[in-house]
């Protein structure tokens, strides 16, 4: 998603606001995750004479599968973002490019949203997951195999390997 910032460049230190919304394809993140809601971005920005400074917030919802119980759930994303745009971005990668009075927010969206996601999605802090023996969902009911009570030894099959 591209915005024109020429007015800010011509008015140093004057603050401008923006509110954008679009699906993942509009932001160049299509295929990464299954987005259940549009990506919304609200921000304020100004030109300080050298770089364009932007502070904002990304909000969206992602469909995810719990790593413990494998159920699909909705994971809300609410991520603050701070970025600097320059006609001559620094070599350290701390600034995003600004070309011909416009900036693309695609890489910023990718960096902020994807970096905010957990390594493993959990539907809840107290998710008990699946029984490793019978596969029952331990969140909804106790399984009948006895694993939960400690009656089943998961290493039982290994004892015959060394006889």
Q: What would you say this structure looks like, in words?
A:
The chain has 163 residues and is mostly beta strands. Helices cover 9% and strands 35% of the residues. The chain is built from two helices and eight strands, in the order E-H-E-E-E-E-E-E-E-H. Strands 1, 2, 3, 4, 5, 6, 7 and 8 form an eight-stranded mixed beta sheet that branches. Strand 5 and strand 6 form a beta hairpin. The longest helix is centred in the last third of the chain and has 11 residues.
Write the layout of secondary structure elements.
Layout: E1 2-4, H1 6-9, E2 16-22, E3 34-35, E4 39-47, E5 52-65, E6 72-86, E7 96-99, E8 102-104, H2 106-116
Parallel strand pairs: 6-7
Antiparallel strand pairs: 1-8, 2-4, 3-5, 4-5, 5-6, 7-8
Q: Overall 3D geometry?
A: elongated
- Provide the residue-averaged pLDDT: 87
- Class based on secondary structure composition and strand pairing: mainly beta
How big a fraction of the residues is strand?
25-35%
Number of E-state strands: 8
Q: What string, H for helix and E for strand, traces the elements in order?
A: EHEEEEEEEH
Identify low-pLDDT runs: none
Annotation field: number of helices: 2
Q: Rounded to an integer, what's the Rg over CA atoms? A: 24 Å
Outline:
This protein is mainly beta and about 160 residues long.
Main attributes?
163 residues, mainly beta, 35% strand
């Amino acid at each position: 998603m591209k915005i024109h910032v020429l007015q800010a460049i011509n008015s140093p230190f004057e603050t401008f606001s923006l509110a954008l919304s679009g699906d993942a394809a509009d932001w160049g993140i299509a295929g990464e995750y299954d987005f259940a809601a549009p990506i919304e971005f609200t921000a304020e920005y100004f030109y300080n004479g050298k770089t364009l400074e932007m502070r904002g917030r990304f909000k969206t919802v992602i469909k995810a599968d719990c790593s413990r119980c494998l159920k699909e759930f909705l994971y809300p994303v609410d991520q603050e973002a701070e970025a600097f745009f320059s006609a001559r971005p620094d070599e350290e990668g701390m600034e995003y490019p600004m070309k011909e009075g416009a900036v693309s927010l695609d890489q910023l969206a990718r960096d902020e949203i994807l970096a905010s996601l957990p390594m493993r999605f959990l539907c809840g802090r107290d998710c008990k997951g699946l029984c490793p023996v019978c596969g029952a969902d331990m969140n909804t009911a106790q399984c009948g195999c006895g694993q939960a009570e400690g009656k089943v030894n998961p290493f039982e099959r290994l004892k015959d390997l060394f006889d």
